[in-house]
Amino acid sequence: MENTTAPEKAFFILNPKSGVRSSVSVPDLISAHLDTTRWVPEIVLTERAGHATELAQRAATEGARLVVAIGGDGTVNEVARGLKDTNSALGILPKGSGNGLARHLGIPLNLPHALGLLNQPSFHRIDSCAINGHPFFCTAGIGFDGLVSSVFAQSTKRGLSSYIQLVVREFRNFKAEATTVSINGRELSSEFFVVAFANASQYGNNAYIAPMANIQDGLMDVCLIRHVGVAEAIQLGYGLMTKQIAHSNLAEFHTCATVSVQSEAPQYFHADGEYMGQAKDFTVQMFPKSLEVVASL
Ligand SMILES: Nc1ncnc2c1ncn2[C@@H]1O[C@H](COP(=O)(O)OP(=O)(O)OP(=O)(O)O)[C@@H](O)[C@H]1O
Asked: Which residues form the DAGKc domain (predicted)?
């Protein structure tokens, strides 16, 4: 169907370092598949970590209706940070290995199809969250998944198989810390293997940490996983990949708008899979409907 209104500005932010499909020329795909009667594209490449946030903020200030992140969840997070609480909508051309937010939002992983979604956009407002002030749009976590994010950040290898190898290796060395989670007026204490905060339902790669999570309900799903041995880890992996984690006795779920966590020792933590550092005290907050996206929800 041909567009009858004047074309609007669409700003594309491409992380040239992201993804395992580097042979694909995204600018060529945009030329071939973007409807230029709907969008006037401008493509900019990131030059360093953090640059995508600056570019997105500038595009929003200049009034771009659409700002498209081209990369993995790290790039999506950086662009989304710059668009939070603005009138510019986030689009995604998924090019990472996990693509958690893109998958949750029903954005095709096939890039021509993802461009097709932008040609006939459906706009939605979604929630976002922040852990110790670091915004996230998909998931954040403390404990084993924080450790994995820190080790993955130092690794040059990418892709699912490298990730699985790393998870297995680190599992053997992981030591859970005594932690108290204060949620909905209750205090829950344990040596948690993982405390995960889910705005969206999955980490990426269709690994569902909170299958019931609704990205528009103003609540985050908190998933608490207590002590895990080898047998439980295998069960947990199966539960993540089959959306069955909520039916196992390994995970406990709570929904809330804010949660705080105190740990006896510093713990690694991540936001959208990106390693954020270590801390003993955590506050996780929800910002309802704070980001507009093009999605198929
Ligand atoms: N020009 C650049 N040079 C180096 N790093 C960059 C550049 N642009 C962005 N980055 C950083 O690259 C990191 C990884 O990006 P991203 O997550 O999108 O890709 P990925 O790691 O390949 O994908 P996935 O997380 O799905 O495996 C981000 O943390 C971002 O800050």
From this structure: 5-135
